[in-house]
Amino acid sequence: MTDAKAIDDAFAAGMVTFYVGYDPTASSLHAGSLTCIMVQRLLQRLGHKPVVLLGGGTARVGDPTGRTESRKMLDDATLSANVAGIRRNFDGYLHFDSGKANDAVLVDNADWLCGLHYLEFLREIGSHFTVNRMIAAKTYRDRLDNEQPLSFLEFNYQLLQAYDFLHLYRDQGCTMQLGGSDQWGNMVAGTELIRRVIEGPSSAQALTWPLLLTSDGRKMGKSADGAVWLDPAQCSPFDYYQYWLSCHDDDVRNHLLKYTDVSVEEIGELCKAQGSALREVKVRLAREATTLAHGAEAADAAVRASKQAFGGGDDWSAVPAVELGISSIGLLELVVDPRIAAFKSKREARARIEAGAVKLDGEPVKDLGLVLEASAFENGTVRLQAGKKKRFRVVLGS
């Protein structure tokens, strides 16, 4: 943090307006962004005002932080669609239009960055930065030390993020930027720019937290199958629930503390559980996390679906359906279909099928040449199990 005492004093004195930025490089955020979102949620519950900044402008440049090569440039239509998609990710976490003084505000920096005139920007903002200081930042220094390309386009990113803070300071009365520790250099650049532009002491501060890894060393929000998206169209509430339910035992307490509203005292009691009793604590974690992301109704349905799919019964009515729209499909093609993706390759699928890891309606199938016909199943629907954790209700078409 830039100044611990100043930050403490600001939070103690009254409502602080603060912001966290998210670049729309995809049409949804994933669970790796939840630390940022939950910090915003916590501070809003304590009476402070969150500004959610979507980087529709900065994404046109690409944040070089933590990367060894330039990001792929996205076209305007894709960026607009991504911004619209990410807006919906916050609905369960923050209140926006409740009429309270600390209602969250959502802004897109394309609204002020895309209209900047280059020469005026260089004169007003660029004059406050030295190349010497910028290349000392870890983001740029690592690229240069490793003789990896660093485009002039990317070199501008720090100026643009600093300008975002200045704009929000002027326009929203925003005095604090929060984010992951990898953004420290960019955040300090913003506080220093504000101090120089207003030519005197400022109340601008920056506060970071470490980037979190799970106990097995993976980045938060990643699973064996890829990112765990917050958009239910990209990761169903059922799959989202399973992600939290399947977490490592050593992560349960940390996840409850950071990703739910359960009190610290109750978490302390819950996490006294050992062995098989910890399973019920994971159920609580998964339900709480899914409720925040998708609502109580979707979380309840995910709980029912999980009990159905892993309880051994024939009723899978709550398990999300995967509708293929075709009357027949080979077993091998089914398990690697992108909508199923039970296995990463046909080679892996063959081995797992021959090992008896795939079941249809509860019965193991080992025939690699098997073709599933819609007419062979009631309502063209078949229950597919792949390994210990993957369950699908597959609907074949006519």
Structure commentary:
The chain is α/β, with parallel strands linked by helices. The protein contains 17 helices and 14 strands. Strand 2, helix 3 and strand 3 form a beta-alpha-beta unit. Helix 11 runs antiparallel to helix 14, helix 11 crosses helix 15 and helix 14 packs across helix 15. The longest helix is centred in the last third of the chain and has 17 residues.
Helix content: 40-55%
Q: What is the count of β-strands?
A: 14
Q: Largest sheet at a glance?
A: 5 strands, parallel
Strand content range: 5-15%
Question: What is the count of helical runs?
Answer: 17
Morphology: globular
Rounded mean pLDDT score: 89
Rg result: 24 Å
Poorly predicted regions are none
How are strands sequenced across the largest beta sheet? 3-2-1-4-5
Structural class: alpha/beta
Q: State the end-to-end distance.
A: 60 Å
Key features of this structure:
5-stranded mixed sheet, 5-stranded parallel sheet, 398 residues, single chain, alpha/beta, 17 helices
SSE order and pairing:
Layout: H1 4-13, E1 17-22, H2 34-45, E2 49-54, H3 76-87, E3 105-108, H4 110-113, H5 118-124, H6 131-136, H7 138-145, H8 152-155, H9 157-171, E4 176-180, H10 184-197, E5 205-209, E6 222-223, E7 226-227, H11 237-245, H12 252-259, H13 264-270, H14 278-294, H15 296-311, E8 321-323, E9 328-330, H16 331-336, H17 346-354, E10 358-360, E11 363-364, E12 371-373, E13 381-386, E14 390-395
Parallel strand pairs: 1-2, 1-4, 2-3, 4-5, 8-14
Antiparallel strand pairs: 6-7, 9-12, 10-11, 10-13, 13-14
Helix pairs in contact: 9-10, 11-14, 11-15, 12-14, 14-15
